[in-house]
Amino acid sequence: MLNKNILNHAILSCKHHRDLDKKTIKEFIPGYKLMENAGVEIFKIIKKEFKKQNKIKILCGPGNNGGDGFVVAKLLKENGYLNVDLFCLVAKKELKGDAKLAAKSFNGKLKSFSNFKVSNDDLIIDGLFGSGLKKNISGNLKKIIKKINLKKPYCISIDIPSGINGDTGEIQGIALQSNDTITFTRKKPGHLLSPGKEYCGNLIIVDIGIKLENLEFKPKIFENHPDIWKNNFPWPNQKSHKYTRGYALIVCGEKMTGASRLAARGAARIGCGLICLGVPRKAFNIYATENPIALIEEVEDEKDLNNLFKDKRINTILIGPGLGISHKKLKIILKIIKEKERIIVLDADALKNNFKKIILKNRTKIVITPHQGEFSQVLKSLKIKNNKNKFLSANEFVKKTKINLILKGNTTIISSQDGRVSINTNTSPFLATGGSGDVLAGMITGLIAQKMDIFNACCAAVWIHGEIGKLKGPGLIAEDLPEMIPKVLKKIKKI
Q1: Which of 78, 246, 360, 442 could lock 450 by a disulfide, CB 3.0 to 4.6 Å apart?
Q2: Strand partners, 206
Q3: How far is the C-alpha of 184 from the C-alpha of 221, rounded, in Å?
Q4: Nearest to residue 67, comparing CAs of 99, 109, 42, 91?
Q5: Which residues pair with 125 in a beta bridge?
Q6: In the 8-state DSSP scheme, what is residue 112?
Q7: Which stretch of 18-32, 138-152, 177-191, 327-341 has the lowest confidence by average pLDDT?
């Protein structure tokens, strides 16, 4: 059983939300009572932020989202809000179930969408479609949503902005641009994945009486947060020494020497006890001069690697940052992949050196860290369909390859071979700078070397990396990232 702190960050698919709703209704709370609870919570938020003189337009669809809208309209009328107009896609008699009960409780007139007009000083309550939308929005309704988006009134969406797929964040024809989205119990993937997250505005989760403890399965999708992994973080103790804190090998290239040196600093600052840089003969002096934090060993070919691998204390290998692309480099990668006892992190150039050959040789645990462009090339090389939605593509890749994936971006997807998925939204646009990904790769490697399990290590490194970006802000360069790690670690200790 997951502890409560971890459950707080669980993300539920649309199906899991529906299943939980059904169980709650069957065993604990009637469906109409849940709808009333939802309406009350939405009303409280409106009451707090908007005056009774505001012109409010409530847009209702044929389902439970529309039913929530009817409850809100009723409460607004009862509490002295005079300028409330309710528009419904269907007549009251066409509504079913709890939505029909909610409509009966509302005594006001229903207005036709044919007469719908909007101004920028309106408040729009969007109860058209929730996560149950099955097809693209089209026709007259599409025109209405387009008109609303152009006028830019203040919009509050119930559950999820109409037109956003709750599982993928994709736009279904068109989507309403919201200022606030009020959802229930827990977030859905579509709240956090682009482009959906850009339409949600401020996301507010309210409790309407549905308890996660009633889930009949263990959630496997989470929003990344220290609560998930901090208890597994490899904090040192009085018995720690450099060999108990991991020994990582970083295989380097001869031209872009800065990349692997940044990775080494990331690994060191995150706590890795020993780091060895395996460097080409041509660049040996460069690495030896500027790397006081790492051992330097010559790695020119497979023979050199064999010598290094005699040291069984090396437990994690990073290859890719600044590596370069060539047949010679591919042979080195293939040699490393054969290692059964060590965990391998593949980044940057390691993903471009004939990835199909690399994957076919896979005999150990592997983590890859591509951005979207690199990932598209990986999928192409493996002849895996590149779904436009990165969440679906990531899950499909991991399912087929059993490789752990960090798919980087403004929302980063961390997908583990054991089925766990983390969606990371703790990030900053200031991380979009050369060398940032190299530091991240080093941080991941450093945590895995300290025997933090792969999924938690990836989640921790990505979150800490994002937190640094937020703290440092404008002017951030890659060299800043390792030096900020201690500050963030101190912060995590206090959470």
Answers
A1: 246
A2: 184
A3: 17
A4: 99
A5: 58, 156
A6: P
A7: 327-341
> Cα(85)–Cα(106) distance, rounded to whole angstroms?
12
- Count how many Cα atoms sit within 13 Å of the Cα of residue 304 in the half-sphere of its side chain: 16
Comparing 191-195, 201-205, 379-383, 385-389, the range with the smallest average pLDDT is 385-389
Residue with token string 């800043």: 480
Extract the tokens encoding 350. Answer: 């390691």
Are residues 253 and 323 in contact, defined by beta-carbon separation less than 8 angstroms?
yes
Burial of 333 (0-12, 13-18, 19+ CB in 10 A): buried
Pairing of strands 404-407, 412-415: antiparallel
**Closest to 399 (Cα-Cα) out of 380, 379, 381:** 379
CB atoms inside a 10 Å sphere around CB 227: 17
Instruction: Dump strand ranges (E) for 286-339.
Output: 295-298, 316-319
Closest CA to 463 of 484, 436, 488: 488
Question: pLDDT-based confidence at 216, cuts 50/70/90?
Answer: confident
Residue 253 CA to residue 321 CA, distance in Å, equals: 8
CA atoms of 35 and 158, how far apart (whole Å): 12
Please report, as a single letter, which amino acid is at residue 220: K
What is the spatial distance between Cα 217 and Cα 463, in angstroms, rounded to a whole number? Answer: 26
* 203 CB neighbour count, 10 Å cutoff: 17
Q: CA 431 to CA 468: how far, in whole Å?
A: 9
Task: Please state the pTM of the whole predicted model.
Answer: 0.93
Q: Give the distance, in angstroms, between the CA of residue 141 and the centroid of all CA atoms in the same chain.
A: 31
The Cα 72–Cα 89 span in angstroms is 17
Say how far apart CA 484 and CA 495 lie, in whole Å. Answer: 17
pLDDT in the model for residue 363: 64
Please check whether residue 249 is in contact with residue 317, taking contact to mean a CB–CB distance below 8 angstroms.
Answer: yes
Nearest to 77 by CA among 69, 67, 89, 65: 69
Kindly give the pairing relationship between strand 247-251 and strand 412-415: unpaired
Domains defined along the chain, listed by start = 28-216 (3.40.50.10260), 226-494 (3.40.1190.20)
**Percentage with pLDDT > 70 across the chain:** 98
Q: Contact 358/345 with Cβ under 8 angstroms?
A: no
Please state whether 303 falls in left (phi above 0), alpha (psi between -120 and 50) or beta.
alpha
